[in-house]
Amino acid sequence: MPDYDVIIVGSGHNALVTSAYLAQAGHRVAVFERRAMVGGAVSTVEHVPGYQFDLGGSAHILIRLTPIVEELGLERFGLEYLEVDPLFFAPYPDGDHLFVHRSETRTVDELEAKFPGEGEAYARFMAEWRPFARTVRDLFLESPSPLTLGRAATSGKAVGGDWREALPRILAPYGELVDQYFTEEKVKTPLVWMAAQSGPPPSEAMTAPFLLWHPLYHEGGMARPRGGSGMLTQALAAHVRAHGGEVFVDAPVDEIVVEGGRARGVRVAGEVYRARAVVSGTHALETYGRLLPAEHRPAAAARMRTGNGFGAVIRLALDRPVRYAAHPGDDARVALGLICRDRRQIHAAYGEYLAGRPASDPPIVAMSFSAVDDTLAPPGGEVLWLWAQYFPYALAGKRGWDEIGPEVAERILDTFEPYAPGTKASVVGSLFQHPLYLERELGLFRGNVMHLEMSLDQMFALRPFLGSAEYRATVPGLYLTGASTHPGGGIMGASGRNAARVVLRDLDRRRGWRGWRWSA
């Protein structure tokens, strides 16, 4: 008899989502995590006394478009979401600014008052592309088989069913698509900068969906777990344990055991644990490049593209709240600060990245979530994250990230300082997570927070590669989840939920899965 029904390798949020659904369905589950705490890149630590630092993703946007929190009842396990509204704040060097609110109507009204005609254009953009955005969301919540993709493409939901009109726009670069709707650069820039968070540059063809996703920000909104981003994964681990599962930390998996051509368990510290199925939540390069025995590694796995990093983040503990020159009120602190003058700044930073150089004038996303959660900093203090792009993992020249890291971190802070004067003087502690740090500490190969490049050749049924894209690995009994699989990176959990559905169906169609409802 196997030790468990299912063993999960790693405890990133997708792996824990899979574990929670399987445990909730009555299966005996064990999670093995190499680090001393669960969560992977969705974790929070007290890096500076009194200040809680997230180590990875911070803005919880995508998961709000899924039913995961409700289906798993995560509120019962300590998860408390705090609403973030306004969603986005874009300040400009000339003192101007704009907000994107959770309310689409309020956003339209403010844009129209500030830039006549742009509010109307925003409303038209939202209305025209909302059906497409919802279709993509629905695809993210399903296994990426040719059947589901074909059904979505012919369902007529996108852009009123007029695909002849929609397709050329969908295939366009998102940095150019905005020109078809807006005339004001101050409106175009924050839309493009948010789309750039997925990785591909604004000039890359077939990337418009990263912009066309925008209508869903108004539907799902944005939130923060009280206590830090890692409270999501803490709640998931508590859920697994409450349903009879076991979660082991400081327990790195050395090998996925394959016997008779099938995954039968894992080897941890010389001991073999057996299961009916194994789910790997680690990076696909880790699964196929190290954990699987060499004779079971397909040639296609060697062709997965991780890219050359693209972002870095400096996390700051401040002794006072951030105050923006363009809008000193708390609304600006609450929102994601989109610090970007214009699209030229994005293109210039990407050009330096292509040359192997860190951006000298990086666009930034600023996050000061202590504005909505007073548990993150001591009274009067603030936590501030500055995510910046673009920064290559492999650098031109002889100097490496360990050497240039401090000066690059200083450059990011210098870029931010004119927008919020006095920030540098209020810093009491910091952590700089450059691409090499992300690889060493969080297992994000070549510093890519999306695991694999989010380009069309590695999306949907091609992620991580053709033949291993529906959460079933190339070895029977082995399944995949995490950012290396559909729908990719970001705090969404859809990969974990989709993978659980596939495992449940394969293990026992009569147990735990009832149509489209999860057993409680």
Structure description:
The chain is of the alpha/beta class and 520 residues long. It folds into three domains: 4-58 and 228-305 and 453-518, FAD/NAD(P)-binding domain (3-Layer(bba) Sandwich), CATH 3.50.50.60; 119-220, no CATH class; 307-447, Polyamine Oxidase, Chain A, domain 2 (Alpha-Beta Complex), CATH 3.90.660. The chain has 17 helices and 20 strands. Strands 1, 2, 9, 10, 11, 12 and 18 form a seven-stranded mixed β-sheet that branches. A seven-stranded mixed β-sheet has the order 7-6-14-15-16-13-17, with helices on both faces. Strand 10 (253-259) and strand 11 (262-268) form a beta hairpin. The chain is globular. The two termini are 26 Å apart.
Largest sheet: 7 strands, mixed
How many domains? The number is 3
| Number of helical elements | 17
CATH architecture type of the largest domain = 3-Layer(bba) Sandwich
What is the general shape? globular
What Rg is obtained from the alpha carbons, in whole angstroms?
Answer: 22 Å
Fold-level CATH name of the largest domain: FAD/NAD(P)-binding domain
Q: Could you name the CATH class of the largest domain?
A: Alpha Beta
> Which class best fits the helix and strand makeup?
alpha/beta
Q: Could you state the CATH homologous superfamily of the largest domain?
A: FAD/NAD(P)-binding domain
Mean pLDDT: 94
Please count the beta strands (DSSP E, at least 2 residues each): 20
Query: What share of the residues lie within helices?
Result: 25-40%
Strand content: 15-25%
Q: Stretches where pLDDT falls below 50 for ≥5 residues?
A: 512-520
